Amino acid sequence: MAEPVYTPTTTPNPGNSFCLIPSAHLDRNRFILKVVEVVLSFIAFILEETVDSCFTCSPLYFFEFVSCTAFLFTLLLLVLLSTKLHEKIHIGAWPTVDMIYTGVIAVLLFISSCIFAADRGSLVQATVAVVFGFLATVAFSIDFGLMVKSKGLPFLNKDKKQEHTNGIQTPAEEERLKANETV
């Protein structure tokens, strides 16, 4: 008898939750894949940090830079796209940013892993770091492939003409004034 009175006020409101998975920018599968990317690139970075000697250190430093960048920026992107924080940063093309970033990191991880693999010596830590570098490359490549498969290449879609506003949206009054001036 009292249930109809309390039901509307006690049901959770999913719009008020902190984590917005699934959202317009990140579905559940890609969220899990982004978490895997963060974990694999972090493990590759940590394992690379355990390498205590190198014959030529440039490949080691390049791998360190790329794996650390992949970890930090993917974590940032994951937090932005899975919360409401992306609304605070006025970027209208989040799918394009995500796709370009993921593709570039996949290529850089592949290159740095290949270079580091060629010059790792016989160190076990370096070998394991390279393996995790290649695993992270595979995860980023799968993510990029899923984005292309589901949405296509956003910057090649000529049928969708979007006005670039650098994230600033014009108010409705300005649009009405512009429409009245042309009449």
Strand content: under 5%
Distance between the termini: 61 Å
The structure class reads mainly alpha
Give the helix level as a range of percent. 55-70%
The number of strands is: 0
Membrane topology: Multi-pass membrane protein
Subcellular location: Membrane
Transmembrane segments: 59-81, 93-118, 124-148
Biased composition (Basic and acidic residues): 173-183
How does this model look, in words?
There is one protein chain. The model has no long low-confidence stretch (mean pLDDT 79). This protein is mostly helical and 183 residues long. It has a domain at 33-154. The radius of gyration is 22 Å and the shape is elongated. Helix content is 67%, strand content 0%. It contains 7 helices and no strands.
Explain the layout of strands and helices.
Layout: H1 3-10, H2 28-49, H3 58-82, H4 85-88, H5 94-118, H6 124-151, H7 172-182
